[in-house]
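Re: the 116-residue chain
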Amino acid sequence: MIRFTPRNQKSTWSKKNIEAAGRMIAGNLMTPEGLELINLRKEDNTDVRKIEFIAALESQFRAHKKAWRFFYAQPPYYRKTVIRWIMSAKQETSRQKKLNELISDSENQLKIKAMR
């Protein structure tokens, strides 16, 4: 048995849920109520978590070639987690502090302390 959690107008739709809904619509399996909710949902209310460095921080990081090479040799999960960790900081000073920690650790061929 497959369980589908009902969505509502204010639900955050993950990429997986959007794809599943698309398959259900294509297979003519979606109920009229489900179709109505899909049409009512806001396009920007999706769970897209593409977080990237802002240009200034990325160029600062790229200036440290050894650290940059080490960082991009790491698995995608590590890079995404670390970028999210840095970019989620509310204050620019906090972002800078975290970036400096990343650069220092990467130059020493280490993952950041929280990921070791």
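The mean pLDDT is 87.
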